[in-house]
Design goal:
406 residues, Alpha-Beta Plaits, homodimer, VC0802-like, 35% helix, alpha/beta, 4-stranded antiparallel sheet, Carbamate kinase, globular, 8-stranded mixed sheet
Chain lengths: 406, 406
């Protein structure tokens, strides 16, 4: 008998038919004798409808009231899911985040879980019930309803698994697991049987939209092993866990292509200390997230000047241009170029640490395929390059073929 | 400075535009210096949609889970209403029933309020906020979410007014107040300036759908004076309060027509003790609510037999027929007649107690208008008669003209 925490996202509980499917799956596990805690999100579309109602009233609604509003989405799903268990003759009871003992800080709309008191959940499990818990929400010690922000339901599941010392945590979603590449881009992409937290974190931040980074970070911090798998079939998913020796044998775990970035280049920035700091401080003040930064070597000009390139989210490009234009006289660069037609290609793998020459092999593969590299950025387990957007998919396929095809 | 509890029903908060109107009204009171507690229902249609979702999953959902589900309706409205106050620059905070200190028993879907601890509400009012409270819901001492059943939001408002010792309780609805008759039936119907709890109770139970009886009973028990008025205009409404001397000067307060009843007559019931008891016990066992009962005089037959007539809700007629058919051999009546084409006309007024001859005048008025009376039932402050449905409206107008036109 195992204690299993399962989490089902919005598309898995999109309507009453899907909720019934979830209930049938849970009932199947229970029949094997397992104890089940089921974390559910709001039915897909519900959170957006609630946000739309709020925006009809005011553009920037009070965050405490947003939490009061949004928490109803998951509360609706838990009640319906419990009913669907009952319809199968399985005892089940729903709990709000507060009732499940999830205590958070008071930072509304992006609260942090401070503490979980799983007494009620344990008692209900021991009494033979399946326990259905509202994802994405908690309560402050003062009794205020809070929500955990994007990806909050995954976080609820992983935090509950940690607090309950669960044997297994399963994150059900609409994909089969974590792949070596997006199968729509690389037809020979393979599902990974396992991946380390760090690799998963790099993939999450690189645009592989399986899970939010914070849930993976939380799992890493508390050593919660979890499985990402599909609610639409019975295929085994991908196990996410601490790095093992055997993982190092695999040089790279996956390749991603992020098409949501744009590149800005400042031409002829005077080569004086503090110029880059000035630029990125102004962007940060404008709440613009900068991803890659490359400062090219100084031109042979007098006075010395350099070119400074960086990438931002496409959605922030206009705002970033405005900020930069405001700096022109102060920083004294010669020109600004903006390029939306870029793709950021990244390879990730803990095996890189012990395998020299991975970068060289990546660059060589791209060169052999006639793909020019515009920017390069690396970390211990990741290499990212910016390429022309039109060549992004070809680049991804070439890299996948070189590193990941069997 | 007065402490005012206002309650807005589902149609008053049907969409964000209506919610803005509610907020504007509340802001107006607050500008006068009043302290405001605002109780809101679910937006109209929301509760029905939630029930529909539940029924898609199972026909008779668990009642604890129904409460978990339905409580989201009011929680949505309080958040949106608080935002609408903010949009007008008025500090406001929303509270669920539990947060407002409303403790109920554990009878899910029709919980009774046991106790209100208005500490949080008082503190927020003293801090200068308008307090928006979710109607229709509470929490058991064990932390289970409960709902109060039909008319529950009115009950929340009246109970909060009692607990807070409010100066005024206003029930905003889509009618202007309590009328001498339904204005759609009697064009010269007048709005009443005041009415006693007992008269209001008789009117509520007679099909004047302004408020549920239990809220009026609660107000009577705790001496909460309240006003029923429209959220669509600024007209004063009807004050509901304890009977005063001056009320006795008015013989009848109003006339109602209930078209939702059906009449069943058992012909030739053997005139033996216990026969009526047997019939009504069987109907009660079938959860069929019987309203009027008339046993006609014994026919001059051998053995002696009587006719027994009673009324039930039209919706229960088929079920009642089945119950009665099952009793035929045991009770031994000769025949059963059912008549759906009836109307129950009632006059209500505390003045009847001290004014003889009201019934005679009512019957005479109907006779003069060629309207036959099929059944009669009276209480201390009410006289009801059953007439042919087709003549119901004419009967109501004749009675209104005789007793209530000025």
């Amino acid at each position: 008998m195992a204690l299993i925490v399962q989490k089902y996202g919005g598309t898995s509980v999109a309507n009453t038919e899907r909720i019934r499917h979830v209930a049938a799956r849970v009932a199947g596990y229970r029949q094997r004798g397992d104890q089940l805690v089921v974390v559910v999100s709001a039915m897909s579309g519900v959170t957006d409808s609630l946000i739309k109602l709020a925006k009809e009233i005011m553009p920037l609604p009070n965050e405490r009231e947003m939490d009061m509003l949004l928490a109803t989405g998951e509360q609706t799903t838990i009640a319906l899911t419990a009913m669907a268990m009952h319809a199968l003759g399985v005892p089940a009871i729903s709990l709000t985040g507060a009732q499940a003992g999830i205590t958070t800080d008071g930072v509304h709309t992006k609260a942090k879980i401070m503490n979980i008191t799983p007494k009620a959940v344990h008692e209900l499990l021991d009494g033979g019930s399946v326990v259905i818990v509202a994802g994405f929400q908690g309560q402050t010690p003062q009794g205020q309803i809070t929500t955990l922000g994007r990806g909050g339901s995954d976080l609820t599941a992983i935090a509950l698994a940690a607090a309950l010392k669960a044997d297994l945590c399963q994150i059900y979603t609409d994909v089969d697991g974590v792949y070596t590449a997006d199968p729509r881009l690389a037809p020979d992409a393979r599902k990974l049987a396992e991946i380390s937290y760090d690799e998963m974190l790099e993939l999450a931040s690189l645009g592989a939209k399986v899970m939010q980074s914070r849930s993976v970070e939380f799992a890493k911090k508390f050593g919660v092993v979890f499985e990402v798998r599909s609610s639409l079939n019975d295929n085994p998913g991908t196990i996410v866990k601490e790095e093992t020796k055997s993982m190092e044998g695999v040089v790279i775990r996956g390749v991603t292509l992020d098409r949501n970035q744009a590149k800005i280049t400042l031409i002829g920035v005077p080569d004086r200390p503090g110029m880059a700091a000035r630029v990125f401080k102004a962007l940060a003040d404008g709440a613009i997230n900068v991803d890659m930064i490359v400062q090219n070597i100084s031109h042979g000009t007098q006075p010395p000047a350099t070119d400074l390139s960086f990438t931002v989210d496409k959605a922030d490009l206009l705002k970033a241009r405005k900020v930069i234009d405001g700096l022109r006289s102060e920083v004294g660069f010669r020109d600004v170029l903006a390029d939306e037609k870029i793709g950021k290609l990244s390879i990730v793998g803990v095996g890189m640490r012990s395998q020299p020459g991975v970068a060289a092999k990546m660059f060589d593969t791209l060169a052999q395929n006639g793909i020019n590299i515009e920017m390069i950025s690396t970390s211990e387990i990741k290499i990212s390059v910016v390429v022309e957007l039109a060549k992004g998919e070809a680049a991804l396929r070439a890299i996948h073929a070189e590193f990941l095809s069997k």
